[in-house]
């Protein structure tokens, strides 16, 4: 990761390579144009997030759940399943009741 | 100077929980089934579907945690582990990252008479992925694969040990004892062959005396206790060779190939994922009040260690025998129930370990599927003790019981196997044998005591094993004086 | 007959009850209207003509038999196309789901079916709810019925335009950071986002799960209450659903704001809201004071961090929620030589630019090296923001702001320039805190509607309905005329 100084602050400098790595994690294939564009876009978006650094969050517990809910549990009782045709209805690549995928490695 | 190496092993064990339904939906949790029929919008990852946690899953995890001496956490939550793979319908696995349900447990194992505490770092809950069936013989040689999501969403606990194991044997023993605990507590089917118990290992070597851990290697795809021990033994040897030749161990994941008897690289560290864990906003946290945990603790059955101890202390069995008999709950129950009818623990233990386990192994059968009941075995042993049948006949009867499930008395009666102890009835046979074997008679009289055994054997043969060997012995000795 | 088009649900229900009209007539009227105006407004992705006529016929049949029917029975409605309808394609306005026909339906759809409301169509939105103008739809942009040159707002622009343009009496959509309220404001209808968890999210294709909430678009407060009565309540299939008894929202329709303490975050509005909108807003404040409410300035701590916090959470959660679209089980599939290339080709061709940008940002902020600085930090600031609002609501019954910093702008305009990426700066606060929020029309500026926004504490819906209803009863600013071709 590279950094640059902007307005006296250390700012992350996003490179096309960074974006390609992220895109690979997210299984996106970027055209050269997208690579450039998304790099710029991410840079702008991240710069807008810089304001967060100014908030003092020491000792603050992260808010994970909006509601104070806990132990939302279901009884261990069998319910309705889809029938095989329904499960497979939204894909054309089917064999022996399974979803077909190309070579894995 | 030659460097002595020390092995450091930690295990990660996945056990499928024996619930009726999946972890986050009400599809049945059953092994097998027609492809993609135990699925619903939730476990098929259809957009918009939402997970709801199965209460039984929480109770089973706590049960396992308590049995493994863990601190049950009052607050735990679910996180998403993000990665793409065709067996993972939502492209994230719901798991527990930084706040697992159980922490800091241990399991005591015994290897070569020495006891050792193996610490358990954590137990966490997660969902299983679907199954991929490959068109070729292996994943690498397949042109395509087929995804069946019946297993997707089956509840799992992952048990992570500290790196406290120092040999392949210790690792195998630990896994066997862990399996017993999970079986005793009835939280899992623990069948390695069906994949309801799976084990990965982290292994590294370091010079004896060093406190710094060596480079860690992850080993996967060990599908039996034997495979675990063999794979680790192989890996220890392989790493030692590399190190002794001055080489370096690089961090990677290797897979055990049972057929070839070796491990091979699966992926290197560079290919390691960034799972981007974050709390799953679709699920509420689990908050375990102490009362709930205590309720679960109180419902635990006697655990293997305690049971083994009882067999040694109260019934006078050897530690080894007690260990074998308590390795599975079903076997221990069988033993206890037999002893309850026929109170001769050592005799019962011997029978179960030699005859019964022998037959089960020979027939590749699980105890649960065998036809013999504890009461039947006890009856057989009583009949034998009363001298009604010989030990040899008893074994024959037992084999018949094993095959048919019939009561021993019935078999003995039907086949006319009652032992002959009547001296009058046996005298004629004894005389006949003496007459037919002059050489042996002479040998015996000449001081070769061994010859008597041969003669007894001949009497037994003549009576098709029904003669009481004690009586035969006595008669022969009298007649040959 | 065209006079029926401007009526609210409860006004139409009165006519249905008196048997002055039948649901079939009403639905036919709406289907005709759709055919007439939707080529210009482009609110709908799918028109469910056959199903609508069938449902209308059933509602009429029940009415004939004298069965007691719900207030929504026989009334035409539209659904944002991120809400799953069994057997009817649900696209999220994405190429990815262009042909996706869910085998199951959302809980809200089930509830509306029980109420015998009649689905006439599924509405365009910004792809997967990511956007503020509906221009990010993979299919087409929706136009604002009040001014066809203008955007309808977003993400649920199609749903708001359908209600404003007379293509449905009411609609359901989702609100992640203003996705219902902003289009409601731009299109001059009422947009209501209830307290997080009060309406089931089961079957609603998520954008950001911890922020998303299903809400309504209606023509008046009474309809808003009736729709909420029909769709809210505990759902055992949604772990984030609030348990406990549900209220009758019509009880909250009180024409009285005397003594209510209303806070105005003046400092937050300054520099964000354009002067013309501010001027309209001030008239509303004046009106509420005339009606007996006490309005006072409040300041919000951490206000500068609100939008950044929101953006991190949306991107992170959306990046994970959109990961399941990999071509294997449903949706677009672009073949590749191996699984990795199937995933990449499918996702690259199936997702639009904005979705990809959000996924890139979300993946980045969740990556192990950045997690603490961005995502975890955002969760902590979110805690502070929620706490701050809880404090404000100890003193005030509700907060009042304009819904959006500007009125609707032209299609194709550079919205970055207009809003500096902060178009949802006034609305996303409610989603971060999980509190209820209402957007109410407040007249127009050069023919483009202005919206007022009210926020209250969690489960404080009653106050919002009270203020909304009082303004509706005492002014002529909240109920705008139906717009679109042929409606003068």
Characterization of this structure:
The complex is a heterotrimer of chains A (105), B (481) and C (488). Chain A has 105 residues and is an alpha+beta fold. Chain A has one domain (2-55, 73-97). Chain A is built from three helices and five strands; from the N terminus they run ββααβαββ. Chain A has helices spanning 16-25, 32-48, 84-88; strands spanning 2-6, 9-13, 73-74, 94-95, 98-102. Chain B has 481 residues and is α+β, with helices and mostly antiparallel strands. Chain B has three domains: 10-204 and 270-292, no CATH class; 302-414, no CATH class; 423-479, Arc Repressor Mutant, subunit A. Chain B has helices at 55-67, 168-184, 225-244, 290-298, 304-313, 319-325, 329-341, 345-362, 374-385, 391-404, 408-414, 423-436, 438-445, 450-462, 469-479; strands spanning 5-16, 53-54, 71-72, 75-76, 79-82, 92-95, 102-111, 114-127, 131-134, 144-148, 155-161, 197-207, 217-222, 252-257, 262-268, 278-279, 286-287. In chain B, strands 3-7-8-11-1-12-13-14-15 form a nine-stranded mixed sheet. In chain B, β13, α3 and β14 (252-257) form a beta-alpha-beta unit. The longest helix of chain B is centred in the middle third of the chain and has 20 residues, at 225-244. Chain C is α/β, with parallel strands linked by helices and 488 residues long. Chain C has 16 helices and eleven strands. In chain C, β2, α4 (107-114) and β3 form a beta-alpha-beta unit. Chains in contact: A-B, A-C, B-C. Chains A and C meet through α1, α2 and β5 of A and α10, α11, α12 and α13 of C. β3 of chain A pairs parallel with β2 of chain B, so a sheet runs across the interface.
Beta-strand proportion of chain A: 15-25%
- The chain-level mean pLDDT of chain A equals 92
Q: What is the makeup of the main sheet of chain B? A: 9 strands, mixed
Strand content of chain B: 15-25%
Q: Supply Rg of chain A.
A: 23 Å
SSE topology string of chain A: EEHHEHEE
Q: Could you tell me the mean pLDDT of chain B?
A: 92
Uncertain runs of chain A: none
Q: Order of strands across the widest beta sheet of chain A? A: 1-2
Radius of gyration of chain B: 29 Å
Query: Count of helical segments of chain B?
Result: 15
Total strands of chain B: the figure is 17
The number of domains of chain B: 3
Low-confidence stretches of chain B: none
CA distance, first residue to last residue of chain B? 71 Å
Tell me the count of domains of chain A: 1
Strand order of the largest sheet of chain B: 3-7-8-11-1-12-13-14-15
| Bulk shape of chain A | flat
Shape of chain B: elongated
């Amino acid at each position: 990761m590279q950094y640059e100084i902007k307005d006296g602050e250390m700012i992350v400098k996003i490179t096309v390579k960074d974006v390609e790595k992220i895109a690979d994690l997210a299984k996106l294939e970027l055209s050269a144009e997208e690579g450039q564009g998304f790099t710029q876009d991410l840079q702008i978006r991240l710069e807008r997030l810089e304001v967060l650094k100014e908030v003092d969050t020491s000792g603050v517990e992260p808010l994970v759940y909006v509601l104070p809910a806990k132990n939302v549990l279901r009884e261990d009782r069998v319910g309705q399943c889809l029938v095989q045709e329904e499960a497979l209805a939204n894909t054309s690549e089917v064999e022996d009741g399974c979803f077909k995928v190309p070579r894995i490695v | 100077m030659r460097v002595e190496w020390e092995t450091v092993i930690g295990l990660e064990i996945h056990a499928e929980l024996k619930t009726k339904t999946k972890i986050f939906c009400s599809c049945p949790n059953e092994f097998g089934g027609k492809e993609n029929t135990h699925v619903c919008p939730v476990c098929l990852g259809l957009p918009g579907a939402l997970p709801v946690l199965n209460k039984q899953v929480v109770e089973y995890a706590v049960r396992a945690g308590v049995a493994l001496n863990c601190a049950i956490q009052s607050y735990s939550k679910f996180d998403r582990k993000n990665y793409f793979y065709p067996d993972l319908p939502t492209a994230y696995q719901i798991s527990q990252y930084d706040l697992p349900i159980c922490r800091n447990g241990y399991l005591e194992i015994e290897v070569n008479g020495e006891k050792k505490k193996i610490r358990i770092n954590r137990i966490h809950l997660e969902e299983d992925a679907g199954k991929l069936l490959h068109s070729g013989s292996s994943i690498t040689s397949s042109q395509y694969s087929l995804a069946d999501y019946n297993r997707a969403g089956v509840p799992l606990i992952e048990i992570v040990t500290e790196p406290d194991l120092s040999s392949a044997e210790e690792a195998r023993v630990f896994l066997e004892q862990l399996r017993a605990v999970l079986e005793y507590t009835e939280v899992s089917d623990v069948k390695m062959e069906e994949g309801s118990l799976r084990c990965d290992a982290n292994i590294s070597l370091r010079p004896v005396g060093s406190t710094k851990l060596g480079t860690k290697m992850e080993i996967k795809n060990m599908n039996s206790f034997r495979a675990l021990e063999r794979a680790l033994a192989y890996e220890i040897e392989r790493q030692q060779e590399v190190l002794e030749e001055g080489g370096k161990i690089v961090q990677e994941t290797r897979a055990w190939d049972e057929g070839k008897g070796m491990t091979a690289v699966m992926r290197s560290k560079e290919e390691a994922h960034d799972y981007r864990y974050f709390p799953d906003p679709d699920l509420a946290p689990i908050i375990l009040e102490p009362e709930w945990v205590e309720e679960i603790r109180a419902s635990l059955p006697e655990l293997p260690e305690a049971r083994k101890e009882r067999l040694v202390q109260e019934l006078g069995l050897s530690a080894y025998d007690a260990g074998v008999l308590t390795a599975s709950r079903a076997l221990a129950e069988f033993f206890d129930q037999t002893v309850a009818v026929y109170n001769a623990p050592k005799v019962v233990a011997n029978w179960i370990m030699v005859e019964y386990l022998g037959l089960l192994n020979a027939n590749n059968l699980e105890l649960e599927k065998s036809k013999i009941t504890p009461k039947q075995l006890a009856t057989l042993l009583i009949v034998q003790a009363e001298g009604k049948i010989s030990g040899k006949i008893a074994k024959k009867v037992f084999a018949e019981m094993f095959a048919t499930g019939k009561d021993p008395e019935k078999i003995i009666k039907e086949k006319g196997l009652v032992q002959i102890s009547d001296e009058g009835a046996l005298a004629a046979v004894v005389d006949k044998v003496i007459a037919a074997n002059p050489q042996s008679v002479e040998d015996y009289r000449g001081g070769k005591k061994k010859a008597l055994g041969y003669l007894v054997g001949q009497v037994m043969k003549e009576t098709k094993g029904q003669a009481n060997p004690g009586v035969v012995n006595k008669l022969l000795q009298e007649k040959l004086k | 007959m065209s006079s029926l088009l401007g009526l609210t649900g409860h006004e139409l229900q009165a006519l249905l009850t008196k048997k002055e009209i039948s649901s079939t007539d009403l639905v036919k009227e709406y289907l005709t209207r759709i055919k007439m105006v939707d080529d210009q407004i482009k609110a709908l992705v799918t028109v469910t003509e056959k199903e609508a006529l069938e449902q209308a016929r059933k509602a009429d049949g029940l009415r004939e038999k004298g069965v007691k029917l719900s207030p929504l029975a026989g009334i035409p409605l539209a659904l944002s196309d991120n809400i799953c309808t069994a057997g009817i394609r649900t696209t999220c306005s994405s190429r990815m789901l262009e042909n996706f026909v869910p085998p199951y339906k959302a809980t809200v759809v089930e509830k509306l079916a029980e109420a015998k409301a009649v689905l006439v169509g599924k509405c365009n939105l910004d792809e997967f709810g990511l956007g503020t103008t509906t221009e990010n739809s993979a299919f087409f942009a929706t136009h604002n019925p009040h001014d066809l040159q203008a955007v309808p707002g977003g993400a649920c622009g199609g749903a708001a335009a359908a209600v404003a343009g007379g293509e449905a009496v009411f609609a359901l959509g989702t609100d992640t950071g203003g996705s219902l309220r902003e289009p409601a404001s731009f299109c001059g209808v009422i947009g209501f986002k209830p307290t997080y968890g009060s309406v089931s999210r089961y079957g609603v294709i998520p954008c950001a799960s911890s922020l998303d909430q299903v809400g309504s678009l209606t023509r008046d407060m009474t309809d808003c209450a009736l729709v909420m009565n029909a769709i809210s309540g505990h759902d055992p299939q949604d772990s984030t659903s609030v348990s406990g008894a549900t209220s009758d929202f019509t009880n909250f329709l009180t024409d009285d704001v005397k003594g209510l303490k209303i806070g105005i975050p003046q400092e937050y509005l300054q520099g964000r809201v354009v002067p013309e909108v501010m001027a309209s807003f001030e008239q509303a404040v004046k009106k509420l004071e005339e009606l007996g409410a006490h309005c006072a300035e409040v300041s919000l701590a951490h206000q500068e961090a609100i939008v950044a916090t929101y953006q991190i959470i949306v991107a992170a959660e959306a990046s994970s929620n959109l990961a399941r679209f990999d071509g294997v089980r449903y949706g677009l599939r672009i073949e590749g030589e191996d699984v990795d290339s199937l995933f990449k080709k499918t996702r690259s061709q199936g997702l639009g630019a904005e979705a990809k940008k959000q996924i890139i940002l979300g993946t980045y902020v969740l990556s192990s090296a950045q997690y603490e600085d961005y995502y975890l930090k955002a969760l902590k600031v979110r805690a502070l923001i929620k706490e701050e609002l809880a404090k404000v609501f100890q003193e005030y019954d509700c907060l009042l702001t304009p819904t959006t910093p500007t009125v609707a702008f032209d299609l194709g305009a550079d919205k970055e320039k207009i809003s500096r990426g902060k178009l949802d700066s006034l609305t996303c606060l409610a989603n971060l805190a999980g509190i209820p929020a209402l957007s109410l029309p407040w007249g127009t500026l050069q023919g483009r509607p202005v919206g007022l926004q009210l926020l209250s504490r969690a489960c404080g819906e009653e106050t919002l309905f009270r203020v909304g209803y009082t303004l509706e009863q005492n002014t002529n600013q909240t109920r705008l005329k139906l717009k679109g071709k042929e409606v003068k």
